[in-house]
Amino acid sequence: MGISTAVPEEHRADAEMLWDYHDMGHELRRCDVGVGLGSHDLGVADHIVELYGGGWFPLVVFTGANAATTVERFPRGEAVHYREHAIELGVPDAAILVEPKATNTAENIEFTRQALADREVESLLLVSKPYQQRRAFATAKKVWPEVDIICSAQRTPLDDYVRAIGDADRVIDMLVGDTQRITAYAERGFAVPQDVPAEVEAAYRRLLTAGYTRRLVQD
What we know:
5 strands, Rossmann fold, Cell_Envelope_Assoc
């Protein structure tokens, strides 16, 4: 069986429930720094470019080394490739800092904090994959609680995102995995707690039962 680029209709409502849950819905406001969290998704860099061009921040930090899912696409590291892409799209090199060592979201935030240690930073505009927003927010509030955190991502319908990634199962697996991490990481002290509404928990459980378990963290 080939890879499907369409969300299965029997799981659509549950996948969209999780998709909407992870969208923080923050209203944009000008911040001191825009932080692009490294991943497989070059749309993060595209969105940083858009926001920088809109004047939402004067300085960009791209953060991220590699993961198993990104090393082939970004062999020199996620942050390095994001920087190159942003420069190609018109962001001045002088406006970009690269943090090339982080391998998880907590490190993204902590190493960004270290990279900005000589600057006065009161607010961050965190840019991530659409379904990473809530986890990024919860992690940043734990790791760097002194700063104001605004989250943003490309406002892409789920179906369009799945087509761009090219693998519906992979996207749903990631939605399920990030939903688990909201609770699991708070329990482990990696992130601040977030409310998980009953309908979100129910959708998550149904997708688990349907076999979307490949991105879960283990106990």
